[in-house]
TrEMBL record:
The active site is at C56 (nucleophile), Y193 (proton donor/acceptor). The record marks Y251, Y296 as: Lowers pKa of active site Cys. This is GST C-terminal domain-containing protein. It holds the Pfam family GST_C_2.
Length: 320
């Protein structure tokens, strides 16, 4: 049952408080526990549940990693509707959108119900992904960068060797991965939001120019390469992919990130994107362009008050 209290300031990203200069600052995640041996949360089959939105880039990180690691039978997943309104992300019981699920655990109407179940006094944002513990009836973690590292190693003892050996955060490359993640998050992953949600020209330009400077830098890094770090797929690729796959369909128009498109302005990034999408089902099956477009254009009424959903580009992603 959804709480009657007004939590729209926690649910609707368009009602988030902006900085004095009109810029957007993302709040930190609140639940930051880990699944580990001898800890409060230990690795067990079917103890945990993952709640995601296909529309959300942060949630898609978790979906991709779950598939790469072969965790489908260990951690079930539930997908919300892309229509994020005053009450936040709805389940299919509240908004029966194609591809959305009902909450199989509590028949929650919205993701916020889970947050209030975990903490009745919760005052933060109701974000996805949510990694839920069915035994303790609480949220383990809602920070995607940590969830993908939990998925990378916490369940290895329960996986077949070929999946246990998949390592998206290899020790030899951790320093380089962390370094890339830092500036990619600030200027690209979150940079598109800082540009899109800016309400002053100054704040917008302060975000959009560094975004394209970083894309120029990534273009050089990916020229002649299939992956960002070493010759292997790492979390740096996963974290970048979720933004780049949304770039032309959403961020170019909706967020005014239109200095260049990926398909016409960045040949190396474009080839890298297509190879990941078309050659690795973990990326393709976790990407739902309809949910992505509907969510951004319909939900973010501060940016798009008409809720008219753009039909292009065609195709959503070019063939390989």
């Amino acid at each position: 049952m959804t709480s009657a209290r007004d939590s729209s300031h926690q649910s609707d990203i368009g009602k988030m408080k902006l900085e004095a200069d009109g810029s957007f600052k993302r709040a930190a995640s609140a639940f930051r526990n880990w699944i580990q041996k001898d800890g409060e949360f230990t690795a067990e089959k079917d103890r945990y549940h993952l709640y995601v939105s296909y529309a959300c880039p942060w949630a898609t990180r978790a979906l991709i990693t779950r598939k790469l690691k072969g965790l489908e039978d260990i951690i079930p997943v539930t997908v919300v509707s892309p229509h994020m309104g005053d009450n936040g992300w709805p389940f299919a019981s509240a908004d029966p959108y194609p591809g959305a699920d009902v909450d199989p655990l509590y028949n929650s109407q919205h993701v916020r119900d889970l947050y209030y179940k975990a903490d009745p006094n919760y005052g933060g944002r109701f974000t996805v992904p949510v990694l839920w513990d069915k035994k303790k009836h609480t949220i383990v973690n809602n920070e995607s960068s940590e969830i993908i590292r939990i998925f990378n190693s916490a369940f290895n003892d329960m996986l077949p060797p070929e999946k246990a050996s998949v390592d998206i955060y290899p020790e030899a490359h951790r320093q380089e991965i962390d370094s890339i993640n830092e500036w990619v998050y600030d200027t690209v992953n979150n940079g598109v939001y800082k540009a899109g949600f800016a309400v002053s020209q100054e704040a917008y330009e302060k975000a959009v120019y560094p975004l394209f400077e970083s894309l120029d830098r990534l273009e050089k890094m990916l020229t002649g390469k299939d992956y960002l770090v070493g010759n292997t797929l790492t979390e740096a690729d996963i974290r970048l992919f979720v933004t780049i796959v949304r770039f032309d369909p959403v961020y170019v128009g909706h967020f005014k990130c239109n200095l260049r498109t990926i398909r016409n302005g960045y040949p190396a990034i474009h080839t890298w994107l297509k190879k990941l999408y078309w050659n690795n089902d973990a990326f393709k099956s976790s990407t739902n362009f309809e949910h992505i477009k509907v969510h951004y254009y319909w939900s973010q009424t501060k940016v798009n008050p008409t809720r008219v959903i753009a039909v292009g580009p065609t195709p959503d992603i070019d063939p390989l």
